[in-house]
Amino acid sequence: MSNNPTNQEKNKEPKQKAQTTVKTAVAKHCLTESIAVNIICGLLFLVFGYIAIMSIFQTCVIDPANYSSEVILFQDDLFVINIFCLVIFTALLFKINKHTAFFAKVNMKFMEAGLFAFSAIIGLVWIFSVQSIPAADSYNIYETASQTAQGNYAFLHNGSDFYNKDFYSGFSYYNCYPFQLGFVLISEIVYRIFGTDSTMPLQVINVLCVAAAYLGIAKITKQIFGRNKIEFIVILALAGCIQPVLFCTFVYGNIIGMCCAIWASHFLIKYFQTNKYLVLIPCGVLLVVSALAKYNNLIYLVAFVIMLIIHTVKAKKWQSIAFALALCIAVVGTSNLVIKSYASRANTELKGGVSQVLYLDMGLNESYMAPGWYNNIALSLYTSNNCDIDAAESQAWSDINSRLNKMKNDSEYAINFFGNKILSQWNEPSYESIWVSKVKGHDVDVQEGLGKAVYDGSTGQFLELYFNFYMMAVFILFTLGIYFMFLYKKTNISTVLLPLVLLGGFGYHLLFEGKSQYILTYIVLLLPYASYALCTILESEYTGIKKVVNSLKEIPDKQPKGFKDTKLYGKIFKRKSK
């Protein structure tokens, strides 16, 4: 019999080799995704594990004696009480879970509509109860937007008589912070439609954006986990997330930017799951608006680009890398275009403004508020160098190197600095949501009614306790959720997109300027994974624990009453048997 392969076998060999090559390529692509997403989850597990543990033992609060100055205090908690509350909370959940067969019958459309309505009603009641007047940066933007809506561009010129002008050494506010013109544009459009007498139209839009953002989080939860029960839990968790609702009095780009970024994430996840490139259009538009409203949302842009690159490698969808490039051009280009447009309309020239190097210098220095919080270093360097960014950055780098050398030589100081900076931002459970309106003026008397109750009454005290327990539970569950995703192999570019944004936000505010109010727009991103963890915990079998409990239950049945010594009982039993 010949050992030479037949012609048929020869024809099979190339096909088998080709199939092997394809399988190897797919495995490589999947491995690329797996390595990337699991590194992200590993880092998040460590970061939020630390925050979760510390939230049991400590809470950061705004010092009542220095409330208007945002001075942060680090208060030790009675951790025994916190653990007791967590145990009671867990026991109640297990009790309730026995009666949740109705989840399969719940119409989630009604639940989503109810969440939107609930959040909107609470928000509208709050903003009209206190009618907060903007101050600081938000007033600068209101002043400019309301005037440009009437054709007055004087505030874009140096030496103009604008709000708090002395603080900027005679320079235009927008020579220092030109990126704020993105939100000026959005505000101007609103004021042209609704009038310039009040900021209330923007506060109403904030409320609707919070409600829409919550709806977006519920949709994303259903997208990535595909279960009604988890979406049901996240809807309840969102209904209890009051901080962003209270924050709606703040006439700034945070809330609008958060809403647009969340819905942009929804469409990008939909693209990853369906490969329908048309959904990239609303994704891109929403991300552009998000970055215009709040320039820090470039963190979303970076996360999107990273995941689109991984998707290109994984699925060989070259349109993904093309979209990533287009997204960068659109987001950054639109912001620059808006700045040039306002400069042209005002017939002036605007400088590049305070750079990220100066913000890094600020973030690595001490502040009277908390480590790495606002300290005026960035603005002072910029204006003292006559808005010469090269000269300002040269001084900033010198200071940064000096700070890094100090931390290198004193590791204990470095650990305390960054540890306190992390906790002062993430473990301040109100996220300045009440502070942003309490310290400002109001168009109504807040010495009575809801405003009084929240600012100085028992309602405010209850909210402090509630926020503390709520965020402690969320941090713990989020950490477990990341662990369960890794354990049950649910980590992929769709499920890890929002965690990557969280990691980006954490890293940015770890190094650059920090404030707890900056963290507020990230806390809702924790909730889908906290809800997944809670659902996993409630549905687990716990067979190992049950075996131990059952074996313990059987022990007393083997001994007669009055006999505690098992050895003695054995001897007596043997004697009786004989």
Automatic annotation (TrEMBL):
Keywords for the protein's UniProt record, in alphabetical order: Membrane, Transmembrane, Transmembrane helix
Stretches that traverse the bilayer: 35-58, 78-94, 115-133, 200-220, 232-265, 277-310, 322-343, 465-486, 493-512, 518-538
Domain Glycosyltransferase RgtA/B/C/D-like positions: 186-335
Pfam families found in the cross-reference section: PMT_2
Entry keyword Transmembrane helix: yes
Signal peptide boundaries: none
Record's keyword annotation contains ATP-binding: no
Protein name: Glycosyltransferase RgtA/B/C/D-like domain-containing protein
Species, as recorded: Ruminococcus bromii
Lineage, top ranks: Bacteria, Bacillati, Bacillota, Clostridia, Eubacteriales
